Amino acid sequence: MKRKLFLLTAIILTLSFFLTACGQGSVIEDTAKENAINALNKAFDASITDANLILMQHEEIYFENDQIKQNDPETWVEYYRVSVDDEQGGSLFYSEVDARTSAVTYVYQNADKIELTAEQEKQAKAIGTFAEYSANRFQQEQKDAASVAVRWVQDKMEPEGDVDHAVTKDIYTDQEMFPTLVFESIVVMKSGTAYDVNVVWPAMQVCQARIFQPVS
Predict the structure, then answer these.
(1) Model pTM?
(2) How many Å apart are CA 62 and CA 69, to the nearest integer?
(3) Residue 91's Cα: distance from chain center in Å?
């Protein structure tokens, strides 16, 4: 009889621990999804109410002296991928949330869904072919994109925050996405938070940003 009671107690405790763990996991996932949806709506003036969530891993990166760096040796961290997908499974909006802290570390909107004005379409056609492309021709546009990035951070991410400094980085394109260009800028706030912001040209809208919280 005592053995049966012991086994029954063990089963109940095991089930209790399992349900508690599941409950905690559900709360963490709900928080991650809520944080991601709020960040995407704020970042891109969207009206998302629900999204898909999956737990994943990627290599840990950090921000130091205006550079994005990887740990050596490399370390891997868990994050929640929160996405709003189209009927074909492509991402319309997408966010990454740190599984440990529930902090949003990345926001993205599909640049292909950004509509161009007639004037912007003319600008895109006027730059010629991919074979003729040179990043050196777009130095002024790169500066303009950095200004867009700064305004976006102050308007959307830290309305009460002050900018410490901003740095222009790379210009991206390839044969498939040309004549669309992507300008990368780093915006560092007085709060210590840094934003690696990509602005798509000629729309001159933010299409993605990686967020680095200050190390406490």
Answers:
(1) 0.86
(2) 5
(3) 12
